[in-house]
Amino acid sequence: MNDVTQEMLDSIHSADACLADVRELAGRLAHLSAERIESFLLGFAEDGEDRAMSRLLQACALNGVKLDPTVLCRCIDVCEDILDTAPCFALQDESAVQPLLAVSVAEELSVERKLYATHLAAELTVKFDLDPQPVRKVLLKQQQSPLPLHCKILVERSLQILERAPNPVQPHTPSWIEFRISDLLPEHRPRTIVGGDYTVRRPIAKLGRNDPCHCGSGSKYKKCCYAKDQELLRDASQYAGTTRSELKSKPGLVDDPDVIYNMRAYELKRLRPSELSENQLLTGYQCALEYGLRELAFDMLVECEKRPGKHEFDTGHFEDLIERVLEAGDLELARRIRDHCKEYTWYRPHAIQFRFDLLENPEQFGPLEHDCRKSVSGALDEEVEGDEPLIRLVYDCAPLYPALAIVFARAAIVSNPDRHLDNEVLLDIIRDTRLDLDLEPWNDPAESLFDWIDDRTHLKEKAESENEEVKRLSTRLEVARTALAEKKQALRDMEQRVNEFGRKPEKAPAPRRKDKAGVHALDGTGNQDREETLQRLRLQVTGLKAEIGEQQEQRGQLRKMLAEERKKLSELLTRNAPAERAGSEDEVVVVEPSGKPTVPEYTDAFRKICDSLPPNLAAKAILAAGRFAAREDAVWRQTRPIKRMPEHYRIRISRDYRMIVYWQPSKSLRILDVIPRQDLESWIKRHG
C-alpha cells in the first residue's frame, strides 16, 4: 500500500503544467476516491507543495471529481496559480459559497487570493440564485480597503456579477467557473525557464561531462551526478551555492530580507526564528503581521530582542504588536505580550488598558453598544423614540465625564438634525461641560453645525412653502381654464342659436290670400317679439364675451404669478445654504488678512447693543471681534466687505445677526455695531 502511495506521489510530482501530462496523471488517479485525493491535498497544503497541489487539482477537474468545498478552499492559499482551482469549483454546488466567504476574510491570504475567493462566491451565488447580500457585504468591505488598480477592477466586476449587469468592457467574458482545463494549460510541455527577474547563480560548481564527479565516486560526471545536478540547476536561485527550494526551507542561508518578504503565509509558518538573521527577523515580523500570524510575529520579536545587534532593539515593536493583537481580539496572546514586557513603559498605557477592559469585561460595554446601535440604525421603538439613546448618554455622562458627554452630544446632533428642541438643549449641555473642562463655552464645532442645520431647516420650510404656493396657483389656473372652456362653449352655443333664430323668417312659407288680413294683424306682434328676443340674445353674447375676456386676463395674471413662484422655488433649491443678502452685496468676496494684528476699539453703539442682546449672542460678537483682530481663519471666512462703504466689513455672528466693523490694515479696527441681517440695507443707507 505504501509503495502504491509513493508511486502516486511520484507521478504527481513529475507531472508538468500541460494537457498531455495532466491527462496521463488523471488516468492514473481515476480509481482513487474523493476522500483519498482530499488527503493528498491536505498533505500538500501542510508541506507547502504548491506545484504538486496544482497538478492534482487539474487532474481532478479533468476526471470530474467533486471535492469537499472546505478542502478545496484550503487549496486557494497554497496552489501554484489561483486559477488552478476554478475548474474544480465549477463542479461545486451552493454549499461552497460559505467556505469561500470564510476564505475571503482570512488574514493569512494575500489580497489577490481573497478577492479571487469572493469572485468565485459571487459567480456561484448567481448560478444557484442565492441571496447576494452576504457576498455583497464582503465585497463592499474589500472595496473600502486600499487596493491596487487591478484588484479594484476585480471588485467592481464581482459587484456587477451580483447585480447581473453585463461587462461594459468585455461583454462576452466567461465566468471563472466556466473555465475548462484546455483554457488554462498548453497542449504540450513548455520549455523550462531557469530563474526569473534576477541573475541566476550556480548552486554547484561547473564541471565538464568527462571530469571526475564531485561526489568522490571516481566515475565520470556524466555517468554519476550529472542528471541530479541538472535538476538543481533548474531550481537555481540568485545566490551562489543555494537553490530556491533550499531558500524556502532555510532562508537563513543568506542574509537577505527579500527572501522573507516574498514568502506566502504557509511558507512563513514553517520558519524558525532562531535560524534567521537580525534583518530577516524584522522583515519576518512585519510579514507575519500582514498575514495575521501574530504569534509568529511575537516569537520573532522575542528572538530579535535577544540578539546583540548593531542597533539597539526598539521596544515600540511590542506596543505595535499588542495593539494589533488586541484589535484582533486575541486576549491570551495579548496577556503573554504584557507579561513579557512588564519592565517596559508603554507610550499609550491608558489606551492599551482600555482595550484590555473591552475584551476582559464585554458585559460592561454591551448596553452601550446596544444603545448606540439603535441610534445609528434608527431602529427606535415607540417607547424609546421619546428618549433617544444618545441623548440619554449625554445626560448620564455630563456630571462625571464631560468630554464623553460632548462627544455623544455632537453625535446626537448629527444623527438627529430634525430634533430642533433637543439639539438646543444639547448645545446648552455642551456649553456647560466645556466650562467644566476649562474651555470657552461658545467655541464648540457643534455651534456651527447647529447653525447649519437651522439654516437648512429654514431653507427646507421655505422651499415647502413655495412648493405649496405653486400647487395652489396651479390649481387656481386649472379651475380658471375649465371655467373659460365652459364659457367658450356656452358662447358658441348662444351664437348658434342666434344664427338659427335669424334664419327662421327667411324660411317661413308665404301666406295665402284668404289669410292675408290675419297675417297683417299678427305680423306686427311677431316682428316685435323677434326683435326683443334677438336683442336679449345679443346682450347675453356681449356679456359672455366680456366675461371670457376678464377670465383670460385673470388666467394671464395667474400664469405670470405661477412663473414667478417657480422661478423663486428653483433659485431656492439651487442654493446650498441661505444666501447672504445685503442690498447689492450678493457676490461673495473673500477677505484676506493683511498687516499686523490691531487692538480693536469698541464704539458706544456696540456696547449698548451688547447689553440688549441675549448673553450667548453678545458673547459670540465679542469673541468674533477678538478673533478678527487676532486674524483667525475661522472668523475671516465669515467676513464679507460692504461694497458701498470702503473699509467696512460685515461678520456673520449667527444665522440672523451680522457685526459691522471698520478696518484699516495695521492702522485701525473699530467694532461699530451688531444688527439683524435684514436691517443691513437700511444700516448702509443711514451710515453710508
Which short descriptors sum up this protein?
688 residues; mainly alpha; 5-stranded mixed sheet; 31 helices; 4% strand; extended
Topology of helices and strands:
Layout lengths: L1 H13 L4 H10 L5 H14 L2 H14 L5 H10 L7 H4 L7 H8 L6 H17 L5 H12 L4 H14 L18 H4 L41 H9 L9 H6 L8 H4 L3 H4 L9 H13 L3 H13 L9 H13 L2 H10 L8 H12 L1 H16 L4 H4 L3 H9 L4 H14 L4 H17 L8 H63 L8 H59 L26 E2 L1 H9 L2 H15 L3 H4 L2 E3 L6 E5 L4 E8 L3 E9 L3 H8 L1
Parallel strand pairs: 1-5
Antiparallel strand pairs: 2-3, 3-4, 4-5
Helix pairs in contact: 2-4, 3-4, 3-5, 7-8, 8-9, 8-10, 9-10, 16-17, 17-18, 18-19, 18-20, 23-24, 24-25, 25-26, 26-27
Task: Walk me through what this model shows.
The chain is mainly alpha-helical and 688 residues long. It is 61% helix and 4% strand. The protein has 31 helices and five strands. Strands 1-5-4-3-2 form a five-stranded mixed β-sheet. It is extended. The model is unreliable at 513-522 and 576-588 (pLDDT under 50).
